[in-house]
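*** Fold description ***
***
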Amino acid sequence: MSDPAWDLFQSLHAVMQAGSFSAAARARGLTQPTLGRHIEALETALGAPLFVRSPRGLTPTDLAQTLKPHLEEMAAAAACAVRDASGVADTKGGVVRLAASDIMGAEVLPPILAEFVKLHPDIQIELVLSNKTEDLSRRDADIAVRMMRPTQGSLVARKVGTTGVGFYATPDYIERRGMPTSIDDLEPNHLLIGFDRARPAIEALEGVNVGREITREIFNFRTDNDAAQIAAVRAGLGIGAIQHALGRRYGLVPVLANAFHFELEMWVAMPETLKGSRRMRLMFDHLVEGLSRFAAEGRR
């Protein structure tokens, strides 16, 4: 038996991501019957089913789940090859794939990237947002903006500063509910906005001492999307933790500034192998400069 073609694995990866044959076919630009034949051919080659089909949809089998991390690595490598080829074919342009947290990608990076596009309109940008740490060594992204010191080897990394975080609320909320006088005054008398289940949020708060354990139960409004937390604070829903620079940008009121404060480091990192790429160096240097300015805005 010959090894299954990469094209078949691409179709499997698409189904695993999309959750259905029809959506996967659209994502790949194929007809649904063609994609179905790909999966059938792969199941025949592997000698086992990849999905259990039921009226409720597709459920990946243990075999498919075992293949999933390898499919992700293959897809990342293929996308990386396309980006690198685009840069070789177009010495002035090409693609740069950035990884950043939800809040950095939604609130901080857009104006910085807008400046970059004005300077380098031929360079295309892909932005992937996640609070998990993307693996630069396997090229999930070309450049990452991280809120902690990078630990992977063979990286070019630059610390651009720190961003301070504190409690904020809208002026309207403070007018309605009053200004808290202490940490103990928060929970019984105020509405708090915070995390639900995300480990990164919990780990970021582990070194913060507010006189009591910070758990999800103290929050009246819970979401693991940082951008949604900021939106909730800006809507006057309650008090939430926000970077100082963003709190000032949106006219929010500091709350218990002397009782609650912590800082996050900001780093820009990329694989050493990309140092010779013009577009990567341009983006790396631009991010360092732009985020350094943002860090200065966030000082108390």
